[in-house]
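Homework help board

Subject: predicted structure for assignment chain

Our instructor gave us this sequence and asked us to write out the predicted structure in token form, then describe one feature. I got the tokens but I'm not sure how to describe them. Can anyone check?
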Amino acid sequence: MQESSLEPILLGTAKKLLAHSSKLKALAIQQPCSYFALMLVEIVEHGQYTYHKSYLVRHAREDKPRTWRLDRLANILNEQGTAKLEVIFQQ
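My token output:
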């Protein structure tokens, strides 16, 4: 059985997760404004159950995704020691 959940988090929390978890997958998702939002996906296996826990980095004061240019987002992840970033382009 697979379940998934999406949790909005702040950038500082995302940096802490990246620093302390080796099972996170970083995704850059293109937004309509041509900038990219950061989503972190963690696959958690608990006994016979597997679920995906997803985190979307949001603005501190607004409930919408925080966006960056792709090069700036890559620099943020590089500072945290993330070696791989998957990019999803919207059509």
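Reply (TA_rk): Your tokens look well-formed. For the description, you could write something like this. The longest strand covers residues 36-46. That's the kind of observation they're looking for.
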